[in-house]
Structure prediction request, 426 residues.
Amino acid sequence: MTPRSSLSRRRFVQALAAAPFVASALEAQTPRGPGSRLGLGIIGMGTRARQLLGSFLRDPGVQVVAVCDVVRQRREHGQKLVEDHYARQKGKGNFKGCKIYNDFRDLLRSKDVDAVLIATPDHWHAIPCVLAARAGKHIYSEKPLTLTIAEGRRIVDEVKKAKIVFQVGSQQRSEFDGTFRLACEMVRSGRLGKLRTVHVGVGAPAVPCDLPEQPVPEGTDWDLWNGPAPKRGYHEALCPRGVHNHFPAWRNYREYAGGGLADMGAHHFDIAQWALDRDHSGPVKIEPPAGRAITGLRFVYADGVEMFHGGPSGCTFEGSGGRLYVDRDKMESKPAEVLKQPLGEKDVRLYRATDQVRNWLECIRNGKETVCPAEVGHRSATICHLANIGYQLRRPLRWDPEKEQFVDDAEADKLLDREPRPPWKF
Prediction:
């Protein structure tokens, strides 16, 4: 297996028709949208994109100028939501100014688009991220950042080269009243004594897709939805018909995502990494449970801290001086005094942000780094991928977090990347 620097260039996927997507750093920092506002394009108009849409529409410094989806009904619905909002805002009966696209590459060619929200299925994160970076567009990508570990390193390298502002949608770092940030500050300030274990309660690993084939609905570009994933027949559980209000089941299947383990793991393992001060590193051992169990996998870090996949939802940190549990609706400790004593001047204080979207937009304007940049999102996604590989191979693995490869294990190294379906490669 090649070292990290070579891995980032190996078998990189892109559409041959996409080149060239290049912009100068100055162009990437300067809004080109209407009225000097930041012109935003949205790639993927499913449930999550619509949840985030209001944050952009309410920001006076942003104008949503384009939406893209492989399902005609969804992109037309997204266009209507945007144009109806601006019509009400301007006090006009109608407003036109949001373009629609079927193919994200066409959106990236638009000079009106300064930044993009990527809210596609996981197997469609890496290619748009890299091509958007090459086009000089600032990027907000939904989590988990990638489908494979190698994809993450490519994104990090391209973002660094393009000098654009990148945010991963790991909003537990900024939202939920700062509860997760406070938990991490407590752990890193030594409130639990010497940290011993972390338990992360999230879903099961991904499984191969075995859904039967259904007729492709009118208005759905099924081949483009598949993209770099293996060719297979349409099923509405993967790509729902028309406009929907649920989170589709593509998350469960190995061809497109990392299962429930990666879907919420990208949030909770992200918090564990933050608390362990491993935002630029990772574990050195992966040990799956015995038999066919789908929980209980153990990570071991170089300092001896053990992290387990399993337990109550959220993160449970345990050290020589107590235990701290945190989730979106709760934080508690044993003994209770761990949380009762406020942090002092000498305690660890972490990046303070109150809204993931707002933090991204502020950083575009001031040139600072976001609360969850590409490297951090990549490292958190890597934990999820390592767990899935461990469950797939069902044997102990050793990991080098610096080289981002397994130690003396060619079989495991083959799972660091996936051969994309043509023409999504060169």
